[in-house]
Amino acid sequence: MKVLRFLYTSYGVLVFFLLFLIFFFLLLIPIFFSSTYKLTGIFNRWWARLLFFFIALPYKVVYESKLDGKKQYIFCPNHFSYIDIPSMGLNHHNTIFVGKSEINKVPVFGYMYSKLHITVDRTKLKSRYTTLVKTKEALDEGKSLVVFPEGGIVTEKEPVMGKFKDGPFRVSIEKQIPIVPVTIPYNWIILPPNEFLLNWKPMKVIFHRPIDPSKYTLDTIDEYKEYVRSVLQEELTRHLNK
Length: 242
What we know:
Largest sheet: 7 strands, mixed
Number of strands: 7
Number of domains: 1
Order of helices and strands: HHEEHEHEHEHEHEH
CATH architecture: 3-Layer(aba) Sandwich
Strand order of the largest sheet: 1-7-6-2-5-3-4
CATH topology: Glycerol-3-phosphate (1)-acyltransferase
Helix content: 40-55%
Structural class: alpha/beta
Radius of gyration: 17 Å
Number of helices: 8
């Protein structure tokens, strides 16, 4: 069984990087021409769809309500697996990511990621502050964001989420941009965080209703975090018990 999973994973990694080589040249357009930033989301969506097609991994994207294509959102998914990032590429909304700076160290891919997305070194106060500033600037430019509120894969017991960071909730309140909780219930089974071996299982991505930030202030940010967390955890638990 592990041999088959190893072969499947090796094939998946090969497909991922072959597609990356193709899309890298396309992504040079928004890298060098910042006004075309919306192409980042479009190309990410093509990349994700082709990736899951070629590795024969079926997926279902569910929207609890129709999102306004002209509005900005901050998408906050749970994060248990490395495959969560391409999963969020299936989003119909064009977005950029806020992610860990470790990705910058990956040859070529790290260059592309650092130029198109926002990275943060959470061990350094200055980096966290700079990321907060860049995040606000991105919102001022009209961009929508994907931010993993746990700050990375930090859980010790999937599918129970780790503690949420303040960042996405703070900018949501300050900029009055709605947060959309996103539940990805099965990725921790498809690609477990403690073993980089793929399992075949249909994927599901659930975009919940946007949350109005006007109901919260910086003094009630913990209530905001807890509400988003409860939406995600309830959905995770529901799928676990199916």
